[in-house]
Task: structure prediction
Amino acid sequence: MKPLLIALALASAMLAAPCAAQTSEETQQRARENFQQADKNDDRKLNPREFKAFINANAEDDIGRASMVRRFGAYDRAFARLDADKDGEITRAELLAARQQ
Ligand SMILES: [Ca+2]
Ligand SMILES: [Ca+2]
Result:
């Protein structure tokens, strides 16, 4: 992990903070692919185990705050924050809604 990215991640402080540096088309495309790969049962939702795989894949690609979530092992906290309707699954809509906050 690059020192600059660590600094950026820490500067954004909270998981819900917007990350303006990571909104390119390419980044969104990779995040979409990571989502599909992490969604093992193809129900277009991520359960906690799938979500962890999704975060790890995003961290490898330096997408959003995934590196910070992985670094701190904050999967549960990130999941709870993103799961807006608390049904134990995260949809793409919930991910997008969180990004726009
Ligand atoms: Ca799934
Ligand atoms: Ca949900």
User: Anything to note?
Assistant: Strands lie at 45-46, 90-91. Residues 45 and 93 are 10 Å apart (CA to CA). The pocket of calcium ion (ligand 1) is lined by residues 39, 41, 43, 45-47, 50 (CB under 6 Å). Residues 25-38 form the longest helix (14 residues).
